[in-house]
Amino acid sequence: MSHTAMLTFDGHNDLLLNLWLHHRDAPAAAFFNGIERGHLDFPRMQQGGFAGGLFAIFVPPLAYITQMAPHHAEQPYQPLEIMWQQLDILQQIAACSHGRAKLCRSAAEIAECRASGVLALVAHIEGADALDGEGELLTEFYQAGVRSIGPFWNLPNRFGYGVNGRFPASPDTGDGLTAEGKAFIQQANALHMMIDVSHMNEKAFWDTARLSCAPLVATHSNAHALCAQPRNLTDAQLEAIRASGGVVGINFGNAFLRADGKRDSDTPLAEIVKHCDHLLRTMGPEHVALGSDFDGISTPDALGDVSGLPRLFAALRDAGYDQALSEKLAWGNWQRVLQQTWQQ
Description:
By secondary structure, the chain is α/β, with parallel strands linked by helices. It has one domain: Metal-dependent hydrolases (TIM Barrel), CATH 3.20.20. 43% of the residues lie in helices and 12% in strands. The protein has 15 helices and nine strands. The protein has helices spanning 15-22, 27-33, 42-48, 62-68, 70-73, 79-95, 107-116, 136-143, 179-191, 202-211, 235-244, 254-257, 270-283, 309-318, 323-342; strands at 8-13, 50-58, 101-103, 119-126, 146-150, 194-195, 217-218, 247-250, 288-290. The strands form two sheets. Strands 1, 2, 3, 4, 5 and 6 form a six-stranded parallel β-sheet that branches. Strands 7-8-9 form a three-stranded parallel β-sheet. Helix 10 packs parallel to helix 11.
């Protein structure tokens, strides 16, 4: 680990999708040896101080697979099987790590990993489209090590409606949770599984806020007041997350940072700082964290990939963030909310 890097726990990344698309035959070897494309691999994590995070299990649309990995598109499109394959990749990383990485099922295990310099892996599901309405598969994934779930991506499913709208727009893009979706929230609560609201539309968000007994968490979202992407959160949503004791992880994607909504990578790190500032003013220092969305977005050139995290913390320091506040953003707030949600 670089001696200049701050230890960071990240709320969201798409490493597993990248490995599933491009390194399916030997994902652990690719991860530990280095990956040419994308933002994440073990050597760059070590360089940047990335010491743990939530790793998304995400089933992309078939059209995306066809575009990014045409040879895989020839195989049957089986979303549930893809989910299990991506979880298996995460398990392979831990098994082949020679003690350098661990699949964590509790907040205590995450804290132990930090203390011992082991990469803390937390399995997260992004989009529950392939799951049943009775909760049997949700329980199976929990038993296999998954500890966090976002019911939606951008498209509707049996549980309700994800955010799906073009910039600029409100997050009020459709109906809320279905009856099965409301039961799903209660099932996740019963398992003490963290619920991610990042891809919920506004009605589904407020349904979840009313139903859930756990802190509200947005793993990779920004401030709608600064960037009117429908995926970003309004001040009223931010205040509800604060009131619940929850956390918002700042997304590093250019399109979620810039006031013009463009994916232009000529985006200064000051844009990330602006979103941090806004969330801190609205929510307070206990409720803001990082949720990079690495391997799922285009990042500012000034950040690049995970090895650029020290540059981000330097920008925060230059903006007046002291060590204590930076440590809350980097690790402490995630540790607290996961401990509270998982109750272990």
